[in-house]
Amino acid sequence: MRVVIAEDSVLLREGLVGLLARFGFDVVAAVGDAGELVAAVRRTRPDLVVTDVRMPPGRTDEGLRAAVALRAADPGLAVVALSQYVQHSYAGELLGSGDGRGIGYLLKDRVADVAEFVGKLRQVAAGGTVVDAEVVRQLMQRGRDPLGHLSPREREVLALIAEGHSNAAIARILTLTEAGVGKHIGSVLTKLDLPVSDDTNRRVLAVLTYLRGRPR
């Protein structure tokens, strides 16, 4: 798997290069600012981009804005934002790009297990959506709540879907049967009035509704 890493901290950048190489990733470029990230992606056409949010020259949200632009040009490009904080202004736009497939937003300080982190990168590269629970919580605090018509249990189920849990995992966490989880998910999809398509895509759309904080 070909990967481009964008991280302005030299130590962290080199650490990521070594870590991913150890797990069999082919790091085709490792850069330190947003302009270099865009150029590297255009030059190497990677399978996955792992980028920090705050990068030179302004050290605000340049990395995230570059990721949004790259996804706009190529919605199939898998991108993981790896940051110390949640950048509200562009997080929803990034997570909503490409129908929400092949996208991730993880917080550096909450990465506690290397193997799990690498697994999440592979999940995103395969088209999955992985969002840290703290990112979900912070984005949900903005604006009015579009999910007021969901029951408390349906909200819990949708929050766990947004965190990337499977039906079986949700059943274990909430002490429900998988059939019960499936019924709650069906109710959520119906109440959010999502367009009929494959179940995987509808789950992604439900998560995007949840994260954006407004009805679709």
In short:
Keywords: DNA-binding, Phosphoprotein, Transcription, Transcription regulation. The protein is built from ten helices and six strands; from the N terminus they run βαβαβαβαβαβααααα. With 216 residues, it is α/β, with parallel strands linked by helices.
Description:
InterPro entries: CheY-like_superfamily, NreC/VraR/RcsB-like_REC, Sig_transdc_resp-reg_C-effctor, Sig_transdc_resp-reg_receiver, Tscrpt_reg_LuxR_C, WalR-like, WH-like_DNA-bd_sf. The chain has helices at 10-22, 34-44, 62-73, 88-96, 114-125, 133-140, 152-162, 167-174, 178-191, 199-212, and strands spanning 2-6, 26-31, 48-51, 78-83, 103-107, 129-131. Helix 2 (34-44) packs parallel to helix 3. The chain folds into 2 domains: 2-139, Rossmann fold, CATH 3.40.50; 143-212, Winged helix-like DNA-binding domain superfamily/Winged helix DNA-binding domain (Arc Repressor Mutant, subunit A). 52% of the residues lie in helices and 13% in strands. The protein contains 10 helices and 6 strands; from the N terminus they run E-H-E-H-E-H-E-H-E-H-E-H-H-H-H-H. The chain has a 6-stranded parallel sheet, sandwiched between helices. It is α/β, with parallel strands linked by helices. The longest helix has 14 residues, at 178-191. The radius of gyration is 17 Å and the shape is globular.
